[in-house]
Amino acid sequence: MNQESRKAEIEGMLEGIEDEKVKAQVTKALNYIGDPSRRLIVTYGSARSRESGYKELALKLAQFAYEQNPEDPYFLLELCNCLGQPQEVVNEIEQYSQRVDLNSLPGDQRAKVIVTLADGYKGAGKISESIQTLEESKTELARGIELLAELYYQTGQPQKAIDLLYERLKWMGKLSQDMAFWMAKSFDTLGDYSQALEKLEKFKDDASIKPIYNEARRKLGLPVESEGIPQSGGSSSC
Fold first, then answer.
1. 135 touches 107 (CB < 8 A)
2. Could you tell me the CA-to-CA distances from 177 to 149, 173, 208 in Å, in that order?
3. What pTM was computed for the model?
4. DSSP code of 207?
5. How far is CA 17 from CA 10, 116, 196, in A?
6. Three-state DSSP state, 52
7. Helices (H) then strands (E): counts for the chain
8. Predicted confidence band at 34 (pLDDT cuts at 50, 70, 90)?
9. What's the CA gap between 48 and 2, in Å, rounded?
10. What is the pLDDT of residues 170-218, one digit of tens each?
11. Residues of 52-66 as b/e, b for ≥16 C-beta within 10 angstroms?
């Protein structure tokens, strides 16, 4: 299907959409398809459609944008966000990496592509590939750290999860909610609460660490404040 046919197909899909804001954003995106300097407008059109529940429209727009700029990681990532199956994400990124050296990408985009690939591997059940991808990348992206800590824990390597998250804690001074969750689970699995007190003493007043520190004290029979254990599913802002 050529460019004009692609555009006409998407415009036809807009006729059945009642959300005027989505229609306006997609129409604007279509006007800038093929212009890399307006990539954020184009990807926002797809993202807005996807988040508003118009998944087929979002996928069509993301595919169209990516076809016009097949070496641009922004369009690759938005396409991956629209794909329905983890293996599809893996396939797209593996094909992309055959054309584009990932090391040539801007640092933040390279990190996002690699973490998206690792997440795809995990979703497809390829756990060893996911771990290897993250370990080799040495990513500092919050989602990458969260994912690797989770994989370490789920593959019976809680000490590796603790060590990974402790390095993050020393660097940032705090953890995201998901990171704190996997640290708490890992300490609980090992039962090494003395290690927890030793590592976390310096950070015990931080909101992400205090519940873990207090739980370790409780397990050791020491007086603690009454606080719960961190729950998974929080923000990845750290």
1. no
2. 12, 13, 7
3. 0.88
4. T
5. 11, 30, 54
6. coil
7. 13, 0
8. confident
9. 25
10. 999 999 999 999 999 999 999 999 999 999 999 999 999 999 999 999 9
11. eebeebbbbbbbbbb
194-224 in b/e burial notation, b at 16+ Cβ within 10 A?
A: eebbebbeebeebebbbbbbbbbbebeeeeb
Interhelix angle 193-200/210-219, nearest 10 degrees:
140
The token duo for 116 is 């998206």
**Tokens representing residue 88 in the block:** 């599809």
Amino acid residing at 36: P
CB 119 within 8 A of CB 147: yes
Tell which residue, 188, 196, 119, 202, has the closest CA to residue 153.
188
Nearest of 12, 121, 5, 112 to residue 57 by alpha carbon: 12
User: Cα-flanking dihedrals φ and ψ of residue 157, to 5°?
Assistant: -125, 60
190 CB-contact burial (10 Å; exposed 0-12 / middle 13-18 / buried 19+): middle
